[in-house]
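Weekly modeling sync, notes
Attendees: AB, CL, MP (scribe)

Item 1: holo prediction request
CL wants a bound-state model with thymidine-5'-diphosphate before deciding which constructs to order. AB pointed out that an apo prediction alone won't tell us much about the pocket. Agreed to run with the ligand included and paste results into these notes for async review.

Input as submitted:
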Amino acid sequence: MTGRFITFEGIDGAGKSTHIEPAAARLRGVGRSVTVTREPGGTELAESLRKAILHTPMDGITETLLVFAARRDHIGRIIAPALARGEVVLCDRFTDATFAYQGFGRSQDLALLDRLEAAVQQGLQPDLTLWFDLDPEVAAQRRAAARAADRFEAEDLAFFERVRAGYVARMNAAAHRFVRVDASLDRREVERRVVEALNAHVGG
Ligand code: TYD
């Protein structure tokens, strides 16, 4: 039995994190075992790297290497074992975020990201990626109301325009696994679309 690997993506403020726990509850309700996790993070090592990535000033290559180091530990300890047990893994962000934030947002070499992705993931890719797409200006307004900014959230509108373009590029390169969810819709309608995508990809 093999599980299903489902990732949630989008710029900060798009609301993806809001929809993960309800999705998990729904899947558990129909008898699936579900692991909910996040990146960077998900293991003791990766969570400590997350603190540095989000709050310690560093250059773009260092940031990229730490994100992939955290991912390697997370895959080995959490994601791969859960998939091998046949579980549904719901992950708040994965490598599409690295292409969007480090690749497009911070202009890191996309060929380097390709090599690191291949080395770290050994072919592992999400079965489904729910991309919560929202106008960066609207997302910035939502963030301003919500919380203190980390190193990414403090970036300007142009940065998030590039990040959004990064997600568009990743979707165009792997359209079979992407579902774009219009995150400007009201919360119930977004949730309805998330359920619809999960039904189609995981089963009721
Ligand atoms: P996020 O997932 O938005 O969590 P929270 O809701 O707690 O703020 O924050 C993670 C941040 O890390 C986000 O701003 C994007 C960034 N990030 C990268 O830059 N590259 C990556 O590969 C990943 C996974 C995240």
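Recorded for review: The helical segments are 16-29, 44-55, 60-84, 95-105, 110-121, 136-146, 157-173, 187-202.
Action items: CL to compare against the apo run; MP to circulate these notes.
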